[in-house]
Amino acid sequence: MDLYEVMAEGCHKLLNSQEIAVLYHAGELTRHDPCKPLGKTLWRTIDELFPLLKDDEGDSDLFASAATPARKPFPVLTLCLFTAALLASVVHFAWNRAHDEWNKESTKAGKRGEGLQQDARRPSG
Question: Pairing mode, if any, of strands 44-45 and 15-16?
Fold first, then answer.
């Protein structure tokens, strides 16, 4: 098993090629990070030592899933129920407001009507 030294932020140990691939696909290493086989003096980039990593983008989901937990998509049913509840609240508020206005108008008209009826009962004179 070949070991490599990698000069990247947060990487302070020797890594094998599989560990480098996992870190590369997880976004922890870039293709421009310096890297060299253990015992060699010439530093090269990860891209120069592992040229197939950049062509392996189709398999990056395999590495990304190991590095980051999967997120559940927001359920469409929950969104629909929330929207329906919000719409029902708006309709209820508008209905109550219109009903209150109608009651105020009816009460005022009723009081005016009572006054007119009392005036009609009163003898003129």
Answer: unpaired
Supply the pLDDT for residue 94: 86
pTM score above 0.70: no
C-alpha span between 53 and 48 (Å, rounded): 10
Q: How far is CA 20 from the centre of its chain?
A: 30
For the stretch 46-101, pLDDT in tens is 888 888 877 655 544 554 455 555 556 667 778 888 899 999 999 988 888 887 77
Q: In angstroms, rounded to a whole number, what is the distance separating the alpha carbons of residues 58 and 68?
A: 17
- The pair phi, psi for residue 81, each rounded to 5°, is -65, -40
| Residue 45: how many other CB atoms lie within 10 Å | 14
Q: How far apart are CA 15 and CA 5, in angstroms?
A: 7
DSSP one-letter code for 74: P
Residue 12, SS3? coil
Between the two ends of the chain, the Cα-to-Cα distance in Å is: 121
Which residues are 3's β-sheet partners? 16
